[in-house]
Amino acid sequence: MRKPFAPGCLPETSTDTPEGRFTVKPGPIEPRRVLFSMRNFLATLPLIYAIFSHRWTTENQLIIWPAALLLASAGTFIRAWASVHCSYSQRRERELTTGGPYRFVRHPLYIGNILIFGAAAMISGLAWLTPIAMLWAWGVYAAIVGIHEEPLALRWFGEPYRQYRERVRAWLPSPTALADLGLPSATAIADQSLRLVFIVPLGMREEILRVLGRH
User: Fold this and answer.
1) pLDDT tens digits for range 45-77
2) Domains assigned to the chain
3) Alpha carbon separation from 198 to 195, 201, 203, 204, 211 (Å, rounded)
4) Which of 30, 65, 79, 86 could potentially form a cystine with 112 if both were Cys, beta carbons 3.0 to 4.6 Å apart?
């Protein structure tokens, strides 16, 4: 049974063989491999700061919890979706993953991580740290992808991966890819939003009754 492969979901100790299988065997210690194995730890360094810091804490729980829940839910969903299409196994054949979320971005697992790290920073009460933590994690992952994962994918898959990389963006889906989702246009959204006008009187019920009571 073939197991799909994509950068961001390869075994940390895997090397390639002529048969195209994952195999575990010791290799020379290289800085890029060390960085790859430590990528998630490096990406979470701002969260270590959040554990010990109480500077500029946001006390408004009505902001903190919904924002954290939204980020965590989005990150978990993306990771779950990606993991279905990116299940590697040692000593099994590999093939390039281009389905599921990999149709839209090349590194959905890392995107899911970034959103979850943002949720962790938000739940700490340091709302100001959230964008910093997310940008830091993206920088770490982007560096690892550039120096290790994509060169490895190019060596393993050659031209198919080169074409995939030209067709699919790394971190943000292209407008063409989003069009494939069948998302509504701004015009369609505006048209449907007009149907919400009936909600306005309900939201202003007290004011309307107060005005009517004066007459």
Assistant:
1) 998 888 877 777 777 677 788 899 999 999 999
2) 3-183 (1.20.120.1630)
3) 7, 6, 9, 11, 19
4) 79
pTM of the model: 0.73
Q: Tally Cβ neighbours within 10 Å of residue 119.
A: 23
Give the gyration radius of the chain's Cα atoms. 23
Find how far residue 98's CA is from the centre of its chain: 16
Which whole-number Å values give the CA distances from 112 to 72, 108, 118, in the listed order? 8, 6, 10
- 3: three-class secondary structure by DSSP: strand
| Residues 118/71, Cβ–Cβ less than 8 Å | yes
What does each C-alpha distance from 75 to 89, 110, 134 come to in angstroms? 23, 9, 12
Residue 153 is classified by DSSP as H
Query: Exposed e or buried b for every residue in 156-188, given b needs 16+ CB within 10 A?
Result: bbeeebeebbeebebeebeeeeeeeeeeeeeee
Tokens of 201: 């009187």
